[in-house]
């Protein structure tokens, strides 16, 4: 009588499912980004910061809604700067628009929204700000790429996955470089601390020896010891 085949354990993927799960994970990673929304009080300033790698395309869309029940439209200024204070994008009385720029170096970028209080009005209600900021693979318009290069839908998805894989590899390479720099800094600091400790010990030993000989000469001069 043949023995029954063992049933697969629950929760354990069978052979052949791992590549499919990895592909689904990559598809989820390249999915649309979630917009950020927040309330901007009247005559206030709010900033969002993000670290972005060098030579990276950054695109974004923003929309500032009018306060509910307000007769006047939204009034706010938008300014995007880097850590050195260079203005990458600026718009006064911004209501809705798009922006795009390419980073030159790895840096911390800041997007600031500053509301203005219209003349002759009291306290203005909060305004709703919606910001959708993308960079890297997310910022690329693959529909335009498909039209220009006449790619099929499957080829477009493969191009998207290829760009995502390259982005992940670059991120790991940057992390490895940062880890090497931190390790070199730690080793250099340890070496300096070791040399400083040896120098301090030598100074203490020399000072103690000098004190012994000085006290011995002093006591001999006073004829307290032979």
Please give the share of residues in helix: 25-40%
What is the residue-mean pLDDT, rounded to a whole number? Answer: 79
Q: Segments where pLDDT lies below 50 for 5+ residues?
A: 1-20, 22-32
- CATH architectural grouping of the domain at 34-139: Sandwich
Q: What name goes with the CATH superfamily of the domain at 34-139?
A: GOLD domain
What's the count of strands? 8
CATH fold category name of the domain at 34-139: Jelly Rolls
- Give the helix tally: 3
Summarize the structure.
The chain is an alpha+beta fold and 226 residues long.
What does this structure look like?
The chain is built from three helices and eight strands, in the order αββββββββαα. With 226 residues, the protein is α+β, with helices and mostly antiparallel strands. It has a domain at 34-139: Jelly Rolls. α2 packs across α3 (153-221). The longest helix is centred in the C-terminal third of the chain and has 69 residues, at 153-221. The chain is elongated, with a radius of gyration of 32 Å.
């Amino acid at each position: 009588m043949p023995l029954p085949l063992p049933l697969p354990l629950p929760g354990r993927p069978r052979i052949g499912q791992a590549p499919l799960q990895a592909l689904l994970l990559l598809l989820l990673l390249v999915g649309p980004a979630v917009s950020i929304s927040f309330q901007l009080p009247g005559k206030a300033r709010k900033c969002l910061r993000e670290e972005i790698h060098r030579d990276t395309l950054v695109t974004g869309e923003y929309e500032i809604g009018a306060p509910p029940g307000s007769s006047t439209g939204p009034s706010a200024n938008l300014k995007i700067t880097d850590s050195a204070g260079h203005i990458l994008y600026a718009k006064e009385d911004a209501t809705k628009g798009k922006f795009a720029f390419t980073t030159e170096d790895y840096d911390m970028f800041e997007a600031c929204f500053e509301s203005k209080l219209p003349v002759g009005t009291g306290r203005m209600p909060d305004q709703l700000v919606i910001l959708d900021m993308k960079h890297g693979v997310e910022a690329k318009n693959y529909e335009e790429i498909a039209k220009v290069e006449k790619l099929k839908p499957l080829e477009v998805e493969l191009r998207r996955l290829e760009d995502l894989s390259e982005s992940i590899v670059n991120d790991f390479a940057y992390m490895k470089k940062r880890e090497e720099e931190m390790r070199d800094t730690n080793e250099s600091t340890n070496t300096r601390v070791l040399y400083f400790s040896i120098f301090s010990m030598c100074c203490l030993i020399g000072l103690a020896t000098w004190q012994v000989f000085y006290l011995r000469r002093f006591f001999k001069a006073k004829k307290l010891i032979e």
